[in-house]
Every structure is written in C-alpha cells, then in structure tokens.
Amino acid sequence: MGLPRHELDPAIRDQFDRYILLSNTDADNLRRGALVAPYTKSCGQRLKLAPGATLPYPDNLVIGDDVYIGLWTYIGGGHITLEDRVMIGPHCTVTGGDHRFNPELDDFSGKHKRGPIVIGHGTWLAAGVTVTAGVRIGRANLIAAGAVVTADTPDYAVMAGVPARQIGCSKDF
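The structure assignment produced for this chain is given below.
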C-alpha cells in the first residue's frame, strides 16, 4: 500500500493534485495525459485524459496519437492497445481480465480469463461501453452507448446492444 498523502514527496503530491483537480478542458486533459504518458508501455502524441479516468496498469497500455479517454473511464486488467484517433466516452470499462465460474465453490473465484484488447484506429466508444477480455474492435467502429462488446468486430461497424451486435456501417454516417 502507498504512503499517506501527507507523507508523499511534495513534488509528487503536486503532480497528484494537478492530475485530480484539473478541469475537463482540452488544455487540462492534455496536461493530465502528459503526466500519465511516461508510465505507459508506449504513448503517442496528444493523449487527453478527462477527470476521473483510471489507468491502474499503465505499463500494459499502448496508446497511439490523438487518443481521448473520457470522464470516469476505467482501462486496465491486461494488455490493451488504443490505436491512433480512438475516442472513449465517459463511464466506459475496458478490461483485459474477466472472472470465471468456479463450480467447486459455486462462485466466480475461478481462474481469470485473460486476453489482449485492441481498439482500432478511429473508433469511438460512446458513453457506458464495456469491452471484455480478448476482443479486437475493428477500424473506425462506432460502439453505441451502453453496448457490451464480447467478440471481435469488423472494420467500419456500428455496434449496439448487450451483447453488442452489428446494426450498421460507420461509412453510412
């Protein structure tokens, strides 16, 4: 467990405070992205992180250029790639680990399902989207609000529902 806030080095505490307290403007989102970028596996240019975005395992993240991660979004739990120009809305969950059922204990304490996630170039995850372990979302997808993506998607798909299914083509917009 980490040190209590009052015991942190003042420079680290200042960075933490700036990360948490900055507003949801482009300039502050870029500043927040610049604070996090050095801790990722790799990060392109102009990462924007909105307030409350949570990246608990940044060393497993590959982030392309011009990526936006929205308010209160969680991205973690496995190897995750966000290609260039990905836009992730508020309250999304992208997790590379899922719980499995353990029949011996009759609960979900079984070995985690793990799998890398790739979100393709130019894709937009609207508000409240969930992406599960092992999924590859194709290029220029629109994933509708509240969708749960449990399987790979083709390029240029519009996906909606639980579980998500293709309802159109993004080129038609």
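Interim note for the steering committee: DSSP finds two helices and 18 strands in the chain. The chain has one domain: 8-172.
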